[in-house]
TrEMBL record:
Its EC number is 2.7.7.65. It comes from Gynuella sunshinyii YC6258. The keyword Transmembrane applies. PANTHER family: DIGUANYLATE CYCLASE DGCM-RELATED, REGULATORY COMPONENTS OF SENSORY TRANSDUCTION SYSTEM. This is diguanylate cyclase. Residues 476-612 form the GGDEF domain. It is an enzyme of class 2 (transferase). Keywords: Membrane, Transmembrane, Transmembrane helix. It catalyses: 2 GTP = 3',3'-c-di-GMP + 2 diphosphate. Its cofactor is Mg(2+). The chain crosses the membrane at residues 206-227, 239-260, 280-297, 309-326, 332-353, 365-383, 389-409.
Length: 626
């Protein structure tokens, strides 16, 4: 098995720093520095953009001419921008399709020497901007875009960053915005209109695009790595899910940051509703994916049944996203998704609290990030459901970056777990190999004679039986040599048992060194008796081998220093006849024993070889007969 462990945890850690930096920069760049009184001065703009997030005059259902802001006869309502901008629903049009005029007063302190831009984020459908002097006399046409359509489905969504230059005016002016809107995004126009120096805006824009690129790149990178982990170990479905979730979030960022529309302008009109549906799925499905992450990380405390229900719910919701008529999406599916998200989050909270109380690895960190997710989601929910809720500073951006952070941290945790499980596996394999080696050694020790190092009686019998059976199957001859030391008792008595032991070791060594073939083997048959088995050798060859052994022993040097000990052996040889295998192994050994006895009786230090008689006894296996 090939296991590839990529080094991406450290890499994604580096990337996560970029994401954090991006997050902080995004927060600081425009949102926290909102100018409350809409004072527009060079000095102010030098330090931060002016964010027009205060109270606007507002007239619903009428595209009032720009100079009407100076007309005291016209009754204006007020609206907090952008908190509930889109939540104002016309009496006549429950689908929130209509026109409106908004106005807010700006105080330009001193002429602006540098060109500025007004930045708008996601205004639908058609819009027209003017600057109108306080007395209504000087009307400066600023910018118009989009188009009004009778068909509410023809939803034109302006690009996220729409910028146009402000003329170098001075004194009090009204910024008047006429807007015609149909919006699937209930509460979608939540982000402020900002005024910024054009130069800095362009510079920031490059930085923002770069940081967006890093964020999306990090997500794709994580997706690929987790896909790789999944392909290495297919049972690790959490990696696959993280990869899918990363792709989802990358897609959502790509679309949410406005790149899809910027790169493919035709998409804006052609798939506006499909874009919305797709965006909705990026909420529905990840809800269950989040649950799945925690299943993998905190398996010990996870109520697995709930995961099944969660997946079922997400699938039903996803189907509804594509089956629900466009007009009802914002009113039916969006709240349903938000409720669904909250339900899933409650389950996650339950798991995380249990994991934290049980001090599982990564639980506290997960809980902290989860807290961010909750704040982001609750904030989102309040923005769309609670009229008047205007804490938009954290809106959207918090949730997106909490999700990014979540993915980064969890992919780290998961990668660490994966690496641990791989090293555990490697350790287990090692342990297993050691055990196998130990078992083999133990098995070997069980069949080796510890004194002489040759096979003991048990090992000899096992190999002998295998060799015997093979020879019978292959119709081959086989011979055995029983080798017995002569007058060994005398040797023991005269020189002691230690010398006797050394003599046995010497005998085993000399016999082993005799030219035996690969299939031949030697073992200690008992006491001072050895056996050599020569499969495939007939009685004549075996007798020759026996003679060589005998002579080698007789002429071998044994005895330390001044001890002049001459060792001799008597050898009994017995072998099967070619083509006659009905001799049992037991009988063959008995025959060798008889031959040995004959060698002893015949004067010792000699070889006797016996062939079985022609009146063969029935074939029996060694085990049966012994
Ligand atoms: N030192 C030592 N002696 C052993 C060992 N195993 C058996 N013996 C001795 O070997 C001797 C065998 O003696 P016997 O069976 O009478 O045969 P022998 O003295 O060799 O006489 P023959 O075989 O007739 O030539 C006994 O004294 C055993 O104690 C062993 O492992 N070490």
């Amino acid at each position: 098995m090939v296991i590839t462990v990529t080094n991406f945890p450290s890499m994604s850690f580096i990337l996560s720093k970029h994401v954090l930096l991006f997050w902080i920069l995004s927060l600081l760049s425009s949102r926290l520095w909102a100018a409350m009184e809409f004072q527009v001065s060079q000095q102010l703009l030098d330090h931060h953009p002016v964010v027009l997030n205060g109270t606007w005059l507002f007239h619903w259902n009428a595209l009032l001419p720009p100079d009407s802001v100076a007309d005291p006869a016209i009754q204006w309502q007020t609206v907090t921008v952008p908190g509930i901008w889109n939540d104002v629903v016309s009496d006549k049009d429950p689908m929130n399709h209509g026109v409106a005029t908004y106005a807010t007063q700006l105080n330009f302190e001193g002429a602006l020497t540098e060109p500025v831009v007004v930045r708008l984020i996601r205004i639908s459908e058609a819009f027209h901007f003017y600057l109108v002097s306080e007395d209504g006399q000087n009307i400066i046409d600023l910018f118009e875009g989009g188009e009004v359509s009778a068909d509410p489905r023809h939803n034109v969504i302006a690009p996220d960053y729409l910028s146009f230059a402000l003329p170098p005016v001075q004194g009090r002016y009204w910024l008047v915005l006429q807007v015609s809107k149909f919006n699937f995004y209930k509460g979608g126009l939540r982000t402020a209109v900002t005024i910024d120096l054009r130069q800095r805006y362009n510079r920031n824009r490059i930085l923002v695009v770069l940081l967006h690129g890093i964020a999306i790149g990090a997500l794709l990178y994580m997706a690929l790595n987790h896909l790789q982990i999944y392909l290495n170990r297919r049972q690790n479905t959490s990696s696959l899910l993280i990869a899918v979730a990363c792709l989802f979030v990358a897609f959502r960022c790509f679309v949410g940051f406005g790149y899809l529309e910027q790169m493919f302008p035709w998409v804006r009109n052609a798939i506006a509703i499909w874009r919305f549906r797709l965006e909705l799925t990026t909420i529905a499905i990840p809800a269950s994916i989040w649950l799945h992450f925690y299943l993998y990380l905190f398996r010990q405390v996870y109520p697995q049944r709930l995961l099944r229900y969660s997946w079922m719910g997400s699938i039903v919701l996803t189907l509804s996203i594509f089956l629900t008529p466009a007009d009802w999406l914002a009113y039916l599916i969006l709240p349903a998704e938000e409720v669904w998200l909250v339900l899933n989050m409650l389950v996650i909270l339950y798991v995380l609290v249990r994991a934290t109380t049980q001090r599982l690895t990564g639980a506290r960190l997960s809980l902290a990030i989860f807290f961010l997710l909750v704040v982001g989601a609750v904030n989102d929910l309040l923005l769309s459901l609670a009229p008047g809720y205007g804490f938009y500073v954290m809106e959207y951006i918090l949730l997106v970056y909490a999700v990014l952070l979540f993915l980064l941290v969890h992919s780290q945790l998961l990668a660490r777990q994966f690496a641990n499980s791989v090293s555990n596996e490697i350790r287990l394999l090692d342990d297993n190999r050691k055990l196998v080696r130990q078992r083999e050694q133990a098995e070997l020790a069980a069949i080796i004679d510890h004194l002489t190092g040759v096979l003991n009686r048990k090992g000899l019998e096992q190999r002998l039986e295998r060799a015997w059976n093979r020879c019978i199957d292959d119709h081959e001859v086989i011979s055995v040599l029983l080798i017995d030391a002569d007058h060994f008792k005398k040797l023991n008595d005269q020189y002691g048992h230690l010398i006797g032991d050394q003599a046995l070791m010497h005998l085993a060594k000399v016999i082993s060194m005799t030219k035996l073939r690969i299939h031949d083997f030697i073992g200690r048959w008992g006491g001072e008796e050895f056996m050599v088995v020569v499969p495939g050798a007939d009685i004549h060859i075996a007798a020759g081998i026996a003679e060589t052994i005998r002579a080698s022993i007789e002429h071998s040097e044994f005895g330390e220093s001044d001890l002049d000990i001459r060792l001799t052996v008597s050898i009994g040889v017995a072998g099967t006849r070619p083509g006659m295998h009905k001799t049992s192994l037991k009988q063959l050994i008995q025959l060798a024993d008889e031959a040995l006895y004959a060698a002893k009786s015949g004067g010792r230090n000699r070889v006797e070889a016996y062939l079985p008689t022609t009146t063969e006894p029935p074939l029996e296996s060694f085990e049966q007969s012994s």
